Amino acid sequence: MKDIKGIANFIYEVGMLNRTPRSGFQFLGTGDQSVAEHSFRTAVISYVLGKMDGKVDVGKMIIEALFHDLGEARVSDLSHVHQKYNERHQADAVKDVAASLPFGQDIVESYTEHENRTTPESILVKDADTLEWIISLKEQVDTGNARALTWIEYATKRLQTEVAKNLVAEIMKTDSNEWWGGEKGGVWWK
Predict the structure, then answer these.
(1) N or C: less crowded end of the chain, CB within 10 Å?
(2) What is the count of structural domains for the chain?
């Protein structure tokens, strides 16, 4: 690797995603999340959807999910309202980040595939991205923000794959506290 300085800078830049807030929560009125938190859970959900599908390259999906919002380190997370008045140029940001990396072309190709939805993997990763938002909204519903239910309804309509549609049905029936406390009425709730 000849440009190790570029790699060091890339790793620092990725850290900016830890401090870049997801803008949708500002409009929702409750909750918060960084782009890095969103990207991590999107990668986990991509793995799950890929395994559920059984016919796709799960490793490729994880890489795509990790980098799908990389450009937001430079352009921030712009909600649909922000995008009405600002041009995003996220693809340009990804290309600029990648230009200093010996493996940068891999990141650009992964990002482009995600944006164009040209493969079964990219369609599943987009569903994982949407599912991550739905799960974040469901967590807000479970803590009392009824407004999030309307947002979930619209987000659910964006899902493309049967595996994602099946998973969201179960997510909506499952309390977000159940994983640690057991089912309501179970031993931990008495």
Answers:
(1) C
(2) 1
Query: Quick one: CA dihedral 104, 105, 110, 116, positive or negative?
Result: positive
Range of the domain at 84: 4-178
Rounded CA gap, 171 and 34, in Å?
22
How many residues are given for the chain? 190
- Read off the CATH number of the domain in which 87 is found: 1.10.3210.10
For residues 97 and 79, is the Cβ–Cβ distance under 8 A?
no
Name the one residue in this structure whose structure tokens are 């089912």: 183
Q: For residue 65, which phi and psi values (nearest 5 degrees)? A: -65, -40
Q: Tokens 């999030």 map to which residue?
A: 148
Residue type at 142? D
Residue 37's alpha-carbon distances to 1, 34, 42, 71, 117, in angstroms, are: 29, 5, 9, 15, 23
Q: What pTM did the predictor assign?
A: 0.94
pLDDT category, 32, cuts 50, 70, 90? very high
Residue 44 lies in a domain: yes
How far is residue 118 CA from its own chain's centroid?
Answer: 18
